[in-house]
């Protein structure tokens, strides 16, 4: 009998010790200090951003309460809640990929969000940068369009932007407008010293493509002719349907002074632009520069800097 009583007391003692050792395993109990977030806090299981104002914070959609949108040149898109309409982003603007507006917004009509096709500034083409490529809105249809105003729009999205403020503007068809050449960048007059290297630039837009030639007034030949110290180079660009042409003079001499003309022509007509070159000896160049500095100083002195600006 004494042995049975001892066994019962030992069993009861073991049960009480076990309960004290693992109280946190009992349902409804926690050992977290007051005020601290439990590891099983339900907010921890939510998608990041929703608890801080994402879709769950949008509330019920009531279209009649949406703000009025005006001046959307790229059309309308859904906002971050997918309820109201807002202005779509234009070509070249940063954008959010996918079909949900998160930070930058969605691309407008006829545009898609993709890596910026333009080369980054300072990009040497090797190794790349550590930063991710920025995604921008790019027009899905890159073919040029001829407008009823005679202007060539490089893609349909640029045409839509122009037509937004001019509803009467229509398309005359796909492809650029046929036009007489237009000199976008004419050659610039310049003065330099004997023995210097000089370059004239002429940029031309035309469709059909233009042929560019250089001439010097007083000489009935197309440059460079047989002159070894004069060269002419041309290439397409910088934009579509443009042509860039350079006239270069190495080791210029005073007899190279004169008027040089850039002439662009296609089967619709021709156009030209001219520039004057002055090649001076050392003394003449020094005198010319001194006179230029004096004229600039007189111009600055004639300007009234004593006025008060607010």
TrEMBL record:
Superkingdom as given in the UniProt entry: Eukaryota
Domain called IGFBP N-terminal: residue spans: 54-140
An annotated GO cellular component: extracellular space
UniProt keyword Signal present: yes
Any GO BP annotation: regulation of signal transduction
Keywords on record: Disulfide bond, Immunoglobulin domain, Protease inhibitor, Secreted, Serine protease inhibitor, Signal
Region annotation Disordered: where it falls in the sequence: 27-51
Domain Kazal-like, first and last residues per copy: 137-179
Major place of residence: secreted
Signal peptide: 1-21
GO molecular function list: insulin-like growth factor binding; serine-type endopeptidase inhibitor activity
Ig-like domain segment(s): 181-278
Location in or out of the cell: Secreted
Protein name, as recorded: Kazal-type serine protease inhibitor domain-containing protein 1-like
């Amino acid at each position: 009998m004494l042995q049975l009583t001892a066994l019962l007391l030992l069993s009861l003692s073991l049960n009480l010790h076990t309960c004290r050792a693992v109280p946190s395993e009992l349902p409804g109990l926690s050992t977290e200090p007051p005020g601290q977030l439990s590891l099983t806090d339900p907010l921890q299981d939510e998608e990041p951003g929703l608890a801080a104002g994402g879709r769950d914070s949008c509330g019920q959609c009531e279209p009649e309460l949406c703000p009025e949108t005006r001046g959307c040149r790229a059309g309308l898109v859904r906002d971050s809640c997918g309820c109201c309409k807002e202005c779509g982003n234009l070509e070249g603007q940063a954008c959010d990929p996918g079909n949900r507006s998160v930070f930058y917004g969605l691309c407008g009509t006829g545009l898609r969000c993709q890596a910026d096709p333009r080369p980054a500034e300072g990009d040497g083409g090797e190794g790349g940068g550590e930063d991710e490529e920025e995604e921008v809105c790019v027009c899905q249809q890159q073919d040029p369009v001829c407008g009823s105003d005679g202007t060539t729009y490089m893609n349909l999205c640029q045409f839509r932007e122009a037509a937004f403020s001019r509803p009467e503007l229509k398309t005359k068809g796909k492809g650029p407008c046929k036009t007489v050449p237009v000199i976008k960048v004419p050659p610039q007059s310049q003065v330099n010293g004997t023995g210097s290297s000089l370059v004239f630039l002429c940029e031309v837009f035309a469709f059909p493509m233009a042929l560019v030639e250089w001439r010097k007034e007083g000489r009935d030949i197309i440059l460079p002719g047989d002159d070894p110290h004069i060269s002419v180079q041309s290439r397409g660009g910088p934009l579509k349907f443009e042509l860039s042409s350079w006239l270069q003079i190495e080791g210029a001499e005073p007899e190279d002074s004169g008027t040089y003309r850039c002439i662009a022509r296609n089967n619709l007509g021709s156009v030209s632009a001219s520039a004057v070159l002055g090649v001076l000896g050392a003394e003449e160049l020094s005198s010319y520069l001194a006179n230029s500095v004096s004229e600039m100083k007189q111009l600055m002195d004639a300007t009234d800097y004593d006025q008060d600006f607010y």
